[in-house]
Amino acid sequence: MNRLAEPPRRLLMGNEAIAWGAIEAGVRVVAAYPGTPSTEVTENILQHAADYGIYAEWSVNEKVALETAIAASWTGDRAMACMKQVGLNVASDPLMTLTYLGVKGGLVLIVADDPGPHSSQTEQDTRLFARFAKLPVLDPATPAEAREMVKAAFQLSEDLQVPVIVRPTTRTAHVCQDMPFSPPPKPALPLPPVRFERDPGWVILPALSAKRHRRLNAIQDEVRRWFLQRRLNGITPTWDEGESVSPTALAGCANKAKDLAIVAGGVAYNYVQEGLDTLGVSIPVYKVGAPVPLPAAPILDFLRGKTSVLIVEEQEPVIEEQLTVEAYRTGFALSIIGKHSGHLPREGEFSTDLLLPLLRRFVTDSIHCNRSPAHSASAASIAQAAQGRSADAAASTEPAITTIPAASNKSAATSETANSAVTPALPSPPLRTPILCAGCPHRNSFYAFIQAARSRDALFTGDIGCYTLGAMPPLGAADTIVCMGASVAMAAGFSHIEPDRPHIAFLGDSTFFHSGIPPLINAVYQQARMTLVVLDNRTTAMTGHQPHPGLGRKGTGETAPTIDIAAVARGCGVEWVRTVDPYDIPATIAAAREALDYPGVSVIIARRDCVNLVRRSTPYRIDAEACRRCGLCLRKFGCPALYEVKDTGGEAGDKGQMGKPAVAIAREKCFGCGACAQVCPWKAISPEVES
Amino acid sequence: MKTFNLIIAGVGGQGGVLASRVFAEAALAAGYKVRTSETIGMAQREGSVISHVRVGERLWGALIPDGAADVLLSLELAESLKGWPKLAPKGQAVINRRPIIPPAASLGLTRYDEGAIIEFLQQQGQRVHLIDATAAALETGNAKTTNMVMLGALSTLPGLPVTAELLWQAAEDILPARLREINRRAFLAGRSLGSCAGTAPLVS
Ligand code: SF4
Ligand code: SF4
């Protein structure tokens, strides 16, 4: 290496290094909520945002920040959301769905942990959260490593289409380190535009969820292989700055130390190496920079021939537990010293000082777990396990786990055959997906916005509730669905990335109170251009018509203060707020057009009671004579009371409509809302005349 | 007594959940142990729904295993196919022959082959009873009583753990007062539709 060609060495704080790593990786959208020790990442990004064409914001909370990043990722941009461990709790709703749906442009979460804690209400370990979410975690030991890991995280995220968490702890985030660094060249601005492409894969529905969960479980092994290929874990760390121990003489404990090994994760690696240095001993250390999901087989390989391992990691025994399970599973008897053996605490920060006495005892062999039969009969099984592993290791780094997906596929196939064997002669039933009820006011709202906006290629962000069913054909009125409240933040997020396209968020009245208000405030504050449609059916319909703060009564039936959605929207800073009756479709279309033309955040409250709470009125009928059989009411509106009459009579031929089925209304289903009569361009639909 | 298993299939909004509740309450009044399981939430909006009702003296899970239902009550024609694998080889089925065509069929996304379904069901012989419960319900003035017509028809099957009287009693207890009369007429209409049902006992 030509030292002269190296960039100058600069002192960077961990969070600054993370910011530069993201900029070097080409991040284009960063959204965050501040929280020690994560704050400076976004501060540094904001400083350089203009130079590098990055959209960055301080969002109103972590959930909104993550949803903003999701919108960016789904357009194909690289995006980052930053927070501290406690903030991840707030962002967990979109995160848990995002893990299923996956990403397009790399999406990295920087979640800074605060062992100690120094300035947090909890010491929770983000790696545990990542295990819960089944997400990869990178755990940098130093600022320099953090910078490289951020770049690796974007790559991993794109390679396997999952969000990736980088989890610096206080002693990475707030530590300064010198490293070769010069700012990356500034790009020519503006950067080429990106565009969100519609795909059913961005709309979470139960059937998709079941499928994606299997995929998420299946890629865990691919993540492990990726970690190993990139040498994120290993005996020689990739980005170690060269402060490792020189192989000194082993003082007085040479014989014993031969049987020992250490596994260290994150910043604990630094304390271990320094401690060994201080003691003047050299014990092989396996560094874990990627603890979740842990590639355990190579670590067990590394431990072959050892009788005792010390596992050092701050906070929870995340590495220790995964390794213990795998050691037990493969019959590898080994004395494991760590948190479960009671030698290391689960609370607080580690330090060289804290570890030194333990390291000393470990080296002098005084703390072996005597419950382990390390020296007895199981020696043979260790050798056996080790042999098996090394034979496989030639072919693959993770031999044992590669067979798992194959096996589970097989069992799925068998159970399918078993099912179909029951009734071979059964005709196939029609596909029957849930859809909005006949007369549901939401259908009208979706229809009105499709009329007003789809010619402008508007994007519709959907949400969780009955109106999720707006995603179903023929409306198809949801391009994304993630979690409650996400529609608002995502429409705003999209509007910053694709400003030339209208963005319309749909949300129910109950959901507005649940989680629609913070992202609405954020949209106004960040000067998004979007329309929020509150589908106000005066209840929480999907779950069985429970009350909410807009209704003036409580769950007990007692009266309560009424919170007015329009007033709340105005209070959030929205200047254009209007209430419409979605049963009046022309008026709703007109209002939709106006809302879309408004250069800012506009809110339309489409208010009409859920049909399950009110009485039906006179049913409608279709005049077979007047009906031109254009099918518009069926194909564009899709009320379930409308159906095709297969048998077209002789008259059809006279009208030159041979073959086109007539449309009729199922009297027993018709709610009498009259929407179809407004939709029919030929005025063929009218109320039944009372007899 | 062995466990009596009833599957109620239908489309969300047809009142299948209420029907299963009525049957379960009647069985409880008859002194049995009862377990039910129902489809709720999103699927209720015009989607396929299926309810399991288990009645007996010793019960474990609420889900009826495949091939173990004594009776399949289907409130809609094609939905009977989805409940069919649950039906025991000698089990009986009472099926509303009125189709509810999903809008997806008009859009060409799926096919509703009424002819093939009827043909299949007719091949099953005496154990399948096809009735037009929707027409009967409309005669009482409200299509929403289709579930009660179906319960009425069900009540004519021999070997049920509950009598028709117990069934109606349970329905009366559950229904709001203003709906009782219309539902009573529907239940009776169902009984007359179902009186042609077979005579082999279902429960030994
Ligand atoms: S329950 Fe109410 S809100 Fe839900 S789909 Fe039916 S009419 Fe619409
Ligand atoms: S929109 Fe009107 S003319 Fe067209 S098929 Fe429907 S009822 Fe007939």
Automatic annotation (TrEMBL), chain A:
PANTHER family assigned: 2-HYDROXYACYL-COA LYASE, INDOLEPYRUVATE OXIDOREDUCTASE SUBUNIT IORA
Residues reported in the UniProt entry to bind [4Fe-4S] cluster 2: C639, C670, C673, C676
Top enzyme category: oxidoreductase
Cofactor descriptive note: Binds 2 [4Fe-4S] clusters. In this family the first cluster has a non-standard and varying [4Fe-4S] binding motif CX(2)CX(2)CX(4-5)CP.
Subunit structure: Heterodimer of the IorA and IorB subunits.
Binding locations of [4Fe-4S] cluster 1: C627, C630, C633, C680
Protein's recorded name: Indolepyruvate oxidoreductase subunit IorA
From TrEMBL, chain B:
SUPFAM superfamilies the UniProt entry points to: Pyruvate-ferredoxin oxidoreductase, PFOR, domain III
Residue ranges of every copy of the Pyruvate/ketoisovalerate oxidoreductase catalytic domain listed in the record: 12-191
InterPro entries in alphabetical order: IorB_Oxidoreductase, Pyrv/ketoisovalerate_OxRed_cat, Pyrv_flavodox_OxRed_cen
GO molecular function: oxidoreductase activity, acting on the aldehyde or oxo group of donors
Gene3D superfamilies: Pyruvate-ferredoxin oxidoreductase, PFOR, domain III
PANTHER family reported for this sequence: INDOLEPYRUVATE OXIDOREDUCTASE SUBUNIT IORB
UniProt-recorded name of the protein: Pyruvate ferredoxin oxidoreductase
Gene source species: Heliomicrobium undosum
Lineage of producing organism: Bacteria, Bacillati, Bacillota, Clostridia, Eubacteriales
